[in-house]
Every structure is written in C-alpha cells, then in structure tokens.
Specification:
homodimer; alpha/beta; two-stranded antiparallel ribbon; globular
C-alpha cells in the first residue's frame, strides 16, 4: 500500500511535467523501488501497462486513486485539539487527498466552542453521539497516552472503523478496526539506534 | 527496532506498576507480539532473561535504552518552523528520550530571530555553517515538498547522518545517511485503502 502511494506521487509529478506515458523504470526511479517491483505491484490490481510503451500516466493515476479509496471524500473526526491535533488539522495533504476533518473533540473547556476554519470544537462527552449520528468511520487520535485506550474504545463503539493513532500506546481494539500507529518518538529512536550502531562498528 | 521501542515502553509501564520481573509472555502482551518473538529479539543482543524467572525489569530497560542509543543525549536540528515544525518542537517525548532540538531554521524573515523556549530560529542561509560548527548529526526535516531535496543535501553536506523527513518526497541521499520518512498523507491513504476494500468485499 505504501508503494502504491509512492507510485501515485510519482505519477502526479510526471503528469505535472507533461508526460503522457511512463515506463516502469521511470516510475520505479521516482518511487524509490525497482521496475520489477512496479510491474509486480500493479499487476495485482489489473493490467494497466502497454507492452513496449509503458503506463498511461493519467489513467494509471486514476486507477491508483480508486484502489487507494481516494476517488471519494472521507469525513474524519479529530480527537484532541492540542499541538499535534492543530498541526494535523492544518496539514494540507489531508484535504487534497479527500480527507475532511469535519468534527473536532477536546475535553478542555477553554477549547470547546472554538472554531477552526468553521469546524466547531466539541466536548469529549459529545464524541459517541456525534460520531454515531454523522456516520464518521475514520478518526485521528491525538490525545495524551493515558486517555488513548478509552477514547479508542468509545470511537469504535460509535462506529469508527479506521484510526490514525498518534498516542504512544498500543490500542486494544477488535480486529475489524484498522489502526495505523504514528509514533514519532519511535521514529527518532530508529535513527539513534542506527547512528549508535554505526559508531560502534 | 520498532519492537525494541515497544518492549521499552512495556518495561517502563511494568516498572511504574512496581514489577521487578517480567516473563516474555507479559512483555509480549504489552508490546503486541508473541513471547517467542520477544525471546528471539532479545537474544540477538545478549542473554538477558533468567530461565523460569523472566526478565529483570529495570536492568532490561537499561539494556534496551543502551541498544537504542538512548543512554546519551542527541542534539537535533529542526528545519522548518511551520505548523508541523512547531508541533514537533513541543512534542514532549522527544526530550524525554534524549533528543534535544537545539537549532531551528526557517527561511521566513518574520520567524527568524524569534525564540522557542530559548532556542533561536536561524535563517536557512546559516544552516550549513551552523550545523557543521555544532557537530549536529540528526535533523528533522519539516519543510514544504519542493524544498526538501535541496535542504536534505545541504544537511548531509554539513555532516548530518540521520534525518526524520516529514516532507512528502523521497530524498535522494547517499546510502550512508539514514532517512526515516513520516508521510502522514500515506498513513491515511493506508486507512482508506483498507476501508474501501472491506466495503467491496
């Protein structure tokens, strides 16, 4: 799936440059992989290439958008209106890709009632009712670690089926719910691990 | 490496609960893996467990911190003082884990000269000289996509060997440099991919 996202970005860049056809080699170079991998990955979803010509940039782009579920808009709930939450709300790529943060929740009374670009910050106590009523299936969890597991369960009870989790906690949720953990501290730990081991070699 | 980070968090939680010994089963449950995996992972770095007793929580915690390079402090440069940059600067886990953002760079003249908790925002033109002089080896790249590749090269020329990259671009850098990409749009795309395919099943 990550590689599909990379191919999509490569196709967008190629399209911007005015290219109508792209070989698997060109795509591979832009996406940081091999041409064999590109052909293999894309063949899983259909036969998009034309032998000897390569891939048609606009149509393959459309196909990958469809495969990634980007051919529609997704309403998203943001839980936690702190620094991480506000950075995520302002992150332009979410909206560009069809993810609309249309509900924000926080338990801080000073924040509740504020509006971010027209979206009202609601109290945490409204979470379950509001999400259930609006049919939101995707949520971004940007609350402190101690609250994350409980909030995760409330989200799932309300009908959420996919969570992007920024809390440094393993959520314990049913297998039917897809959770993607973004743990920024772990990302830097992976860097310090590598640097430390190079230093010792 | 990610699993080591999870074990560390599990050991910290167990330590907070006052446990002195932990079985591989307990560690596995907390870290979201299997006890066989725990034993296998830890055996790579030495023999830490005591047969029939389990692992000593404080000493294993210390060992994993050492393995992850967390037994020292790392000076870190933050490039890009926008919303993502400011959220990362305020992210408490970085400092807790020994990562000190001690230099901030931005090309916006309105930001240059400001201080975030005492750390001055410097002009992008100072990047190479300042990083070389201060010997910083780790950087967080939070600049817009068009600038990211160039800034990445400047960082590496200045001596940076590890980059946490938030720009939605594949940096093209020598293999000796370790780059961890955090692409938030791709993380949500992985969610929409899963939800779309479940819907179609």
């Amino acid at each position: 799936v990550r590689r599909l996202s990379h191919y999509l970005r490569a196709l967008e860049a190629l399209g911007d440059e005015g290219l109508a056809l792209a070989s698997s080699e060109v795509l591979a170079e832009r996406a940081g992989t091999t041409s064999a991998q590109v052909r293999k990955d894309l063949s899983i979803f259909g036969s998009f290439g034309r032998r000897g010509l390569g891939y048609e940039v606009p149509s393959l782009r459309g196909e990958i958008e469809r495969i990634l579920g980007l051919d529609r808009r997704w309403p998203v709930a943001l839980v936690g209106a702190g620094r991480i939450g506000s950075a995520l709300f302002a992150y332009p790529s979410f909206r560009e890709r069809g993810f609309d943060i249309c509900a924000i929740f926080d338990e801080d009374p000073a924040k509740v009632g504020c509006r971010w670009e027209g979206v009202e910050i609601r109290p945490a106590s409204d979470l379950e009712r509001h999400i259930r009523r609006s049919g939101i299936e995707m949520a971004i969890l940007a609350v402190p670690a101690p609250a994350a597991r409980t909030v995760g369960r409330v989200l799932v009870d309300a009908g959420v089926r996919a969570i992007l989790n920024f809390a440094p906690v393993q959520l314990q949720l049913p297998d039917s719910v897809v959770v993607n953990d973004v743990n920024l501290a772990m990302e830097v730990e992976a860097l310090s691990f590598t640097l430390s081991h190079r230093d010792r070699e």
